[in-house]
Amino acid sequence: MNNIKEKLIKALFDTKAIRVCPANQPFWYTSGKIGPYYINTHFLYGGEEKANSLLQVIDTVKEKKEECPGVLYELVMKNYEEDRVYRSTIDALIDTIKKAIPGDDYDYISGGERRDWFFSLAAAELLGKPHITIFKDLDAYIFRNRKSEKLISLNGAKVLHIADLITSASSYERAWIPVIKNAGGNMKYSFVIIDRLQGGSELLEKLEVQSNALVGIDGDVFKEAYDKKYIDKEQLEMVIKYIEDPDGFMEDFFLDNPDFIKNALNSDEKTASRARLCIEKGYCNISGTPSGLNLKD
User: Fold this and answer.
1) Which burial class, exposed, middle or buried, applies to 4 when counting CB atoms under 10 A from its CB (0-12, 13-18, 19+)?
2) Residue 153 CB-half CA count within 13 A
3) How many whole angstroms separate alpha carbon 23 and alpha carbon 19?
4) What CATH number was assigned to the domain covering residues 64-218?
5) Cα angle: 255, vertex 256, 259; to 5 degrees
6) Of 48, 58, 191, 260, whose CB neighbour count within 10 A is largest?
7) Following DSSP, what letter does each residue of the chain receive, concatenated?
8) Mean pLDDT of 4-25
9) In this predicted model, what pLDDT tens digit does every residue of 178-209 receive, in sequence order?
């Protein structure tokens, strides 16, 4: 395991950016599926409290689109100077980008709303490139020399997109790539802190975007975490089973724990809504219902 990856794995667990559930208590995901771990890459900003504080700022300033990049730039660069974990993450990102991609082969760095901005703005500053701040409504602003201007045309320029995390690359396909393409640019590269290895990089390659990551979340990551005593043996076995077959893990868990769905439906609204989505999408409808439980009661 290379030194950058080893240090980043330590930072991910130290800041609780990766959380593994206790055995037999999987997390509910927004998709309505379940799994044994959560990844909050933005916690590498210096921990959960700092990361949530920046998200609150983002939610306040993103409505003022022209001002937004400047406000966030000041905050992330200040944090870069002050926070050891965040600085080491950004430095690792910069060093890896320099080794992987020629500096003269991209003209801009882009980042999408919201968590990409934790990393893309600082990287753009340290790599000496203008930053394209992309919003979910497909608006975008170029930030350079501490000034913002609305993105109109890129005149064929090449773009490196930096993101916190890639799963299926749906945000790239829906928003980030079209914004660059519609402005006459070419998103040539993508670089993420974490690749969940769930098809996103393959989709980017089909879309002619070269995909790169600091860390791919595979079994070796969790074996390293077990060796460092971040997780126990039961958690490791659960995660490995999930990584090998996410849907099989989910089906087996529902069959072995028929009360899990029922309890979720009677829990808080956030959990109950995800359990209902699970039922609606048929994720837990295995040979009718797990152990004969009437899930619609």
Assistant:
1) middle
2) 2
3) 12
4) 3.40.50.2020
5) 85
6) 191
7) --HHHHHHHHHHHHTTSEEEPPTT-PEEPTTS-EESEEE-GGGGGTSHHHHHHHHHHHHHHTTSTTTHHHHHHHHHHHHHHH-HHHHHHHHHHHHHHHHHS-GGG-SEEEEETTTTHHHHHHHHHHHT--EEEE-TTS-EEEEETTEEEE----TT-EEEEEEEEESS-HHIIIIIHHHHHHTT-EEEEEEEEEE--SSHHHHHHHTT-EEEEEEE-SHHHHHHHHHTTSS-HHHHHHHHHHHH-HHHHHHHHHHH-THHHHHHHTS-HHHHHHHHHHHHTTTT-SSSSGGG--TT-
8) 93
9) 999 999 999 999 999 999 998 999 999 999 99
Which residues is 216 bridged to in the sheet? 195
pLDDT band for 287, please (50, 70, 90 cuts). very low
The CA-atom distances, in angstroms, between 283 and each of 20, 39, 88 are 22, 22, 40
Query: Whole-model pTM?
Result: 0.90
Can you tell me the distance from the alpha carbon of 101 to that of 12, in angstroms, rounded to the nearest whole number? 25
Single-letter amino acid, residue 83: D
CA 86 – CA 42 distance, rounded (Å): 9
User: Is the CB of residue 46 less than 8 Å from the CB of residue 22?
Assistant: no
For residue range 75-119, list pLDDT tens digits in order: 999 999 999 999 999 999 999 999 999 999 999 999 999 999 999
